[in-house]
């Protein structure tokens, strides 16, 4: 056994790297079935590199496009932050030193290293630690110290003070339908908060988007900011900034990185609680906030800030007679119909983009009932309006 840690240096030979680069579109199954490409490296090992590299193409273009990167198993890449999210995160920290206590593949550490003088990357899996150390050298991140150990244990043993502690704990598999709590994560942050605040005044915690705001706030305490990060209208992560002894108003910051640019929206949490909303039946335009805003629960604040009226307390669609810039999607209202089989059939639609808002039937049930396929330029919203009438809005996208 010459690779006790499972980091096979032979993968980094020039001819092997050339093969991995030239065969990025190769069919993995056929590669596994053919005779070995190299005498001393299995085709399975090559296939693993190709597969993992392919996973990086859109998520981690810097790793995908750099020669000499050693790719871990696919799972490590699936669990890592995307480059877009990691860059965003790095802008939230500053100072001398940061410890990334759950280092993983090293994407976050790499981006933090451009903002801080010294980064400590702790990863409990010795193989992944070794892979991260190799790749960070290849990427010329000179100020990162990789330590193959449990980050929480490293903090316990350390006498140093850090400007920031970053944690991206993994979620243990929990039963479907259960509300995620912080105690479902490993390491269990709640047990270690005292230790963390003994070593730093600032903690940046990443959690799954499924974690409920109110649970996170009540369990963590000292929350200064919550960031909701979406990429192409899919919420990827929640970021919690904790400051030792903080008891002021929390800022909620939402960001959606889309092909059209970056949409940001922020508000103090107290504003959402105190805002009053005006309701109206559909006017000329319908506005649908992006996924980050919807996750943040800014249902009233978004209405007030943009001078929009809401269709119903529980229908998170907004309306106005003017077309305005908006962090989300905008639609022109063409037809407003009561939800009635005859009237919908009369539209004669073969296909449409269908959404439901505060409506008893699912999109699948509606498609089946009316024989409407997916796609096209027509947008149908099935929603309950402020007069409690179930309604169909036929719209075009602006």
UniProtKB/TrEMBL annotation:
Gene3D superfamilies recorded: Methyltransferase PG1098, N-terminal domain, Vaccinia Virus protein VP39
THUMP-like domain sequence ranges: 328-397
InterPro entries: PG_1098_Fer, SAM-dependent_MTases_sf, Thump-like
Keyword list, A-Z: Methyltransferase, Transferase
Boundaries of every PG-1098 ferredoxin-like domain copy: 285-327
Any GO molecular function: methyltransferase activity
GO BP annotation list: methylation
Membrane-spanning segments: none
Protein known as: Class I SAM-dependent methyltransferase
Species for this entry: Pricia mediterranea
């Amino acid at each position: 056994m010459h690779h006790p840690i499972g980091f096979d240096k032979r993968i980094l030979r020039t001819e092997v790297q050339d093969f991995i680069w030239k065969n990025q579109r190769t069919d993995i199954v056929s590669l596994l079935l053919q005779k070995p490409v190299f005498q001393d490296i299995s085709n399975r090992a090559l296939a693993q590199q190709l597969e993992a590299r392919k996973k990086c193409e859109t998520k981690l273009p810097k790793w995908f496009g750099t020669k000499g990167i050693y790719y871990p198993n696919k799972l490590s890449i699936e669990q890592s932050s995307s480059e877009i999210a990691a860059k965003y995160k790095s802008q939230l920290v500053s100072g001398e030193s940061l410890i990334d206590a759950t280092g993983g593949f090293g994407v976050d550490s790499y981006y933090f290293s451009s903002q801080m003088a010294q980064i400590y990357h702790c990863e409990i899996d010795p193989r992944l630690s070794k892979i991260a150390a190799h790749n960070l050298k290849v990427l010329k991140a000179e100020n990162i110290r990789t330590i193959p150990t449990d980050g929480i244990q490293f903090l316990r043993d350390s006498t140093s003070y850090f400007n920031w502690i970053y944690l991206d704990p993994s979620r243990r598999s929990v039963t479907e339908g259960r509300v995620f709590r912080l105690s479902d994560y490993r390491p269990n942050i709640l047990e270690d908060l005292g230790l963390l605040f003994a070593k730093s005044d600032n903690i940046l915690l990443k959690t799954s988007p499924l974690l409920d705001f109110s649970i996170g706030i009540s369990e963590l305490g000292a929350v200064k900011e919550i960031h909701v990060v979406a990429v192409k209208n899919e919420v990827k992560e929640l970021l919690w900034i904790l400051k030792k002894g903080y008891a002021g108003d929390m800022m909620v910051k939402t960001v959606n990185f889309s092909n059209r640019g970056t949409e940001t929206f922020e508000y103090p949490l107290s504003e959402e609680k105190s805002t009053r909303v005006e309701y109206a039946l559909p006017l000329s335009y319908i506005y649908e906030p992006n996924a980050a805003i919807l996750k943040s629960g800014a249902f009233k604040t978004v209405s007030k800030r943009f001078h929009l009226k809401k269709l119903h307390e529980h229908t998170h669609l907004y309306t106005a007679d003017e077309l305005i810039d908006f962090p989300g999607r905008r639609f022109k209202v063409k037809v407003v119909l009561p939800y009635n089989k005859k009237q919908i059939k009369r539209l004669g639609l073969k296909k449409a983009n269908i959404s439901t808002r505060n409506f008893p039937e699912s999109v699948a049930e509606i498609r089946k009932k009316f024989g409407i396929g997916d796609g096209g330029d027509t947008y149908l919203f099935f929603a309950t309006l402020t007069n409690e009438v179930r309604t169909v809005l036929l719209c075009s996208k602006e």
